[in-house]
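Please check this.
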Amino acid sequence: MDSTRLVIAFLWRLPTRFILDRTWRLPYKEFVTMTIPQMTVPENLPVFPLTGVLLLPGTILPLHIFEPRYRNMVEDALDADKIFGMIQPFAPQQDNRPLPGADKETPDLYKVGCAGYIEQCEKLPDGRFFIQLKGINRFRFEEELPLQRGYRRVRAIYREFPDATLAEGWSCDRKLVLEALGEFGRAHGMQVKPEHAERFSDLELVNLLGVSLPFHPAEKQALLEAPTLKEREKMLVNLLCLGAGSADPGEDTSPRTLN
């Protein structure tokens, strides 16, 4: 990874990102406080499998939708409740198509993902979409439903994850998190400015670091599945201290174990 500056930023255009960039700056007037929407989520949930992409409740994920089947998914979501889920394939890969020689046409998925709501959407003349998806609630699934217009769907179960109230009674050890972030930054040749974190709530700090830093897909999955925010915070600190993950997802997609 090239030497860069880690700017802890919450851009309106890319609000889930701790930007790893040389030039971008925070537009303070456009700072948005993280909130977790409380809304009814569907049992039959369309899902978008994508390796290395983590959506957590309250974070916003910018997506460029260009495959015809996922254009169909977005169109159907816009005509219904504007909700679909993000989930990772179990075997890391660069897209959501079957690996060469695979027996199944649909790659196996992790059992836990996160449902999101389409907050903003722009449809281009050629049919592609640019959307912003806001995390609502994590889900687990045991049953995959038949394809609909080419895209995948699951029967989602949400009761295991009370995400709307997960932050109640929890506070982050910010000093420990920022010290670990500093160690991670030095290991990756980045300058880290802890004072930029002061404008973030505990929930924003932990969740935005989790979704934005270059952890391995299996490590991102572990952050998603953490039962409590305290456990997610502890796992985040461990990953930062270990220098886990690769700045380039293509460098190493071998399985990793996180205890």
In short: Residues 4-32+166-242 form one domain. The radius of gyration is 18 Å. The first strand starts at residue 4 and ends at 7. Residues 174-187 form the longest helix (14 residues).
